[in-house]
Amino acid sequence: MNLARASSLIAAGTLVSRMTGLVRTIVLVAAIGTFAAGDSFYYANQLPNTVLTLISTGLLTGVIVPRVVAVSAQSDGGRIFLPKLMTAGAVILLAATALAMLLAPWLVSVVAGQLTPQAQSLTTAFAYWCLPQIFFYGMFALIGESLNARRIFAPYAWAPVVNNAVSIAGFGLFIAVFGSRDGLDGWTPEAIALVGGTATLGIIAQVVVLTVFWRRSGIPLRPDFRWRGVGFGSMGGLATWTFGMVMVTLVAGVVQSNVMSAASGDNASAAIWGNAWLVYMVPYALIVLSIGTPYFTRISEHAAAERRPEVLADIGASIRTLGLFVVIAAVGLAAAAAPASRIFTQTSEAALLAAPVLIAFLVALLPMAILFIIQRTFYAYGDTRTPFFFTLILGVMVVSLTLVAMLVPRPYLTVTVASVQTLCGIVELVIAVWLLRRKIGPLGLARPLAAIGRFVLAAIPAGAAGYGVYLWTGGGEGWMLGSLFLGAAGTALICATAGAIYVGILAAFRTPELATAARLVRARFGR
């Protein structure tokens, strides 16, 4: 499967997944709001979500995917190794889930220690229903990343659509049975079970979808405990550094959650942070993951075959292609920050509180896209030790600056924490590029950086025009903040305006990367 077609399959699934994910968030906000009860559910549901993020970006990407790529090229196509890998992963995930369930009250106190006792009690009740997601999230990531490594990209991108459909139905049922509520009072065991159980049932559904596609891959999916002599020992050495990376990221996240929990109530806090991150993840997943994931597979293949010129060529090509799309996505969404935030908030006032948080995240969109490629190049070479060290530097910076952020007034606390995250991510990128250059030599980044400079210059007037549309319609007092549907329409109008001007400017200057973009678009919509 070529890169264009693989990217189009991932992008199509990701687009539908993210759009249905936004609908899921809208229904959830209608059910429990974005402040008191919304914060409690966010903290509980974020515990297994954090595990998924750490597993996917750490152990799976850094250790397992390169290994699966290697064994898939063997004569048996991995039929012996992969069932053993799935069995070992399931055993570890079951143990981790059981331990988390036992420690649920302590985990809640760790991540949300500054919530009121009533809020912590509700969060713990939600957590008992959400923590089983650890097992299913882990299996979803393990099966999905293994399918990606075998160049079967579509199921991993499309399965979350099923999750979102289940969640939309469940949260809609909650509204029909219990009505909408935002406060901490009146939460019966049945109401808690419906919200928390719906979230977990959606994750189970998407694992079932992947299991069906895994069987079609021709690899048997059966328990196999004969682990001796299959190479788990060498993977364990790599996983040691990945585990350290997981712990650093976890500590930083715990500090961030605790600091933000002080703002819970009437100010932007955890739920606002999480929903702004969801909007940020739409372009990240649609662009960075859909384009970058096939490149990562190909970089892993070139690295395994010691084809350094091809590795460098893929690094440069992927950064230029990502930059073309990411720059305008970040600028367009920043111009539409308030209408975009209105999609997941109940009032225009809440949208204006959430907009700066979203903008703070969007500043990091381009650096994180480049870091995606740089970090995965280390993984392609079987190096998880070096990413641990630049992640450690990031973690120390995040913890230190987040603690300093506690000094700012509560209304500005969450946006300050988001800004700290962005600043530290940019520093991490600079360090990662320097370390990769030391490892494999000059990276040839002059051409990609020059291209990104052109993209930024074209995006500035495009973004200004989009923001002008927002102001022309009344800004914070205009129709774009009137409802979530008007917010979505306003976001689309602003982004369309900015995107059209951006493409026009690049076309006028005959930017060569537009040809690559055109091929991707044709591959995506040509069928």
Automatic annotation (TrEMBL):
It is found in: Cell membrane. One of its GO terms (cellular component) is plasma membrane. It is a multi-pass membrane protein. The chain crosses the membrane at residues 21-44, 50-73, 85-106, 126-144, 156-179, 191-214, 235-257, 277-296, 317-338, 350-374, 386-406, 412-436, 448-472, 484-509. It comes from the Bacteria. Pfam families: MurJ. This is Putative peptidoglycan biosynthesis protein MviN. It comes from Microbacterium lemovicicum.
